[in-house]
Design goal:
three-stranded antiparallel sheet; alpha+beta; two-stranded antiparallel sheet
Length: 142
């Protein structure tokens, strides 16, 4: 099945996203970078539409994780739990978003462990056993 894309329309609440219309009806939203390659009247296959939606799901999960990371550094496990539990993101999308976070340097378990130990040492001192326990709880390997 083929669809012609209608003009893109910027979303009101999220200015970096656009609405995509197929056959004159709203189909889905995309981030601007992915939507840039689409043109009015362009023919899209079902497979191309699925691929665009899939890419957008990864971008949205990545953005949600970045927001969660903005409060403090997190471990890989904390991000997985957040995306799975709070945002109900499918495992394959989670993994791709986490890979993007690691590639961008936003997620690094070794750096997180250093941060956690320094923070605890300075503000809420703990003994070595308690620190190891806390780090294990956050998914950091011994």
């Amino acid at each position: 099945m083929f669809h012609g894309t209608a003009p893109r329309q910027r979303q009101e609440k999220q200015k970096d996203r656009v609405n995509i219309y197929l056959d004159g009806e709203f189909a889905f939203g995309l981030n601007e970078l992915d939507a840039v390659s689409l043109r009015k009247g362009q023919i899209l296959t079902e497979e191309e539409i699925a691929q665009l939606r899939d890419q957008d799901a990864v971008v949205r999960a990545f953005d949600q994780a970045v927001g969660y990371l903005s409060y403090r550094p997190r471990s890989r496990q904390e991000i997985q739990q957040y995306l799975k539990g709070k945002k109900n993101i499918p495992p394959d999308i989670q993994e791709r978003a986490i890979t993007r976070l690691e590639t961008a340097g936003y997620l690094d378990d070794r750096a997180f462990a250093r941060y956690w130990i320094e923070n605890r040492t300075q503000f809420q001192p703990r003994g070595p056993h308690a620190l190891r326990y806390e780090l294990r709880q956050k998914g950091i390997a011994p």
